[in-house]
């Protein structure tokens, strides 16, 4: 019951933001989620270091500042070129901090883990407001979220009930090949429903959920996003397995941690962004 209640509240909040929010609200919400997920990541990294008799030397203030700056430089007043210099400055600052405070054997691993945390969590979530402010941006974000959520639900219930052959037992013993296939199909079915609703609204003059690309392209995109989402889920499981924990945290009742809920999105969002860049470069039309 807790799981269903938490999921319902989160889904309603996300859809309310997408359809009725403003850019600053989307950015702020994404940044808060990123900060919480980054904090969980630091705790996972610390547990992993302790299991090897080491003490992690990535300060919380650095991760919080780095995550915040990742969103600040995506605001309209900042050029896109600002992202790399800011990331470089943050990396050098952490490198210097560790160089003077950490045991020398940890300087490189700690710096690398800190940089990875920003690239793994902060950067993908900065793409959410960037996607939202594109032409037909709300439809883009809805499509992304629905594909990720529907695939996760299909994999959970069909894989748990009927799946036998393990997909990646070393990373996630509960996932099966049948669940993975069901996940892809679930995302494609959900995408089809979104398109049907979009066409019905557009026919009535409502372009809030407007999607202009061909039906087959949307289904193919849904399948690609689902595969990326499943890979993101498995890779977060690898981090948790390495740290010897089941969940990234306890912030969401019935769901574990924030990072557990967005792990699929952290890979699916960059994949969607890259596909949109490819469509634009090769003149394949809009979403």
What does this structure look like?
The chain has 287 residues and is mostly helical. It has one domain (2-281). The chain is 74% helix and 3% strand. It is built from 10 helices and 2 strands. The chain has helices spanning 2-20, 23-50, 60-72, 83-101, 104-132, 137-162, 177-203, 215-243, 258-262, 265-281, and strands at 166-168, 172-176. The protein has a two-stranded antiparallel sheet. β1 (166-168) and β2 form a beta hairpin. The protein is globular, with a radius of gyration of 20 Å. The model has no long low-confidence stretch (mean pLDDT 92).
Brief descriptors of the model:
single chain, about 290 residues, mainly alpha, 2 strands, about 75% helix
Describe the secondary-structure layout.
Elements: H1 2-20, H2 23-50, H3 60-72, H4 83-101, H5 104-132, H6 137-162, E1 166-168, E2 172-176, H7 177-203, H8 215-243, H9 258-262, H10 265-281
Antiparallel strand pairs: 1-2
């Amino acid at each position: 019951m807790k799981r269903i209640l938490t999921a319902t509240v989160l889904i309603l909040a996300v859809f309310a933001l997408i359809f009725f929010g403003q850019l600053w609200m989307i950015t702020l919400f994404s940044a808060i989620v990123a900060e919480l997920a980054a904090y969980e990541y630091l705790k996972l990294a610390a547990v992993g270091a302790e299991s090897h008799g080491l003490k992690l030397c990535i300060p919380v203030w650095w991760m919080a500042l780095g995550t915040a700056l990742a969103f600040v430089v995506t605001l309209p007043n900042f050029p896109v070129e600002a992202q790399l210099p800011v990331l470089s400055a943050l990396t050098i600052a952490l490198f210097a901090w560790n160089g003077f405070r950490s045991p020398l054997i940890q300087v490189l691993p700690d710096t690398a883990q800190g940089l990875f945390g920003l690239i793994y969590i902060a950067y993908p979530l900065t793409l959410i407001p960037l996607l939202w402010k594109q032409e037909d941006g709300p439809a883009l974000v809805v499509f992304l979220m629905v594909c990720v959520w529907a695939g996760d639900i299909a994999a959970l219930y069909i894989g748990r009930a009927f799946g036998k052959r393990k997909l990646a037992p070393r990373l996630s013993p509960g996932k099966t090949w049948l669940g993975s296939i069901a996940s892809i199909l679930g995302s494609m079915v959900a995408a089809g429903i979104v398109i049907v609703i979009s066409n019905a609204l557009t026919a009535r003059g409502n372009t809030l959920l407007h999607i202009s690309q061909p039906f087959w392209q949307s289904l193919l995109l849904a399948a690609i996003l689902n595969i990326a989402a499943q890979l993101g889920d498995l890779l977060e499981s690898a981090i948790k397995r390495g740290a010897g924990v089941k969940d990234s945290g306890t912030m969401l009742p019935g769901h574990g941690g924030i990072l557990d809920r967005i792990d699929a999105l952290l890979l699916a969002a960059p994949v969607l962004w890259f596909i949109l860049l490819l469509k634009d470069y090769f003149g394949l039309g809009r979403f």
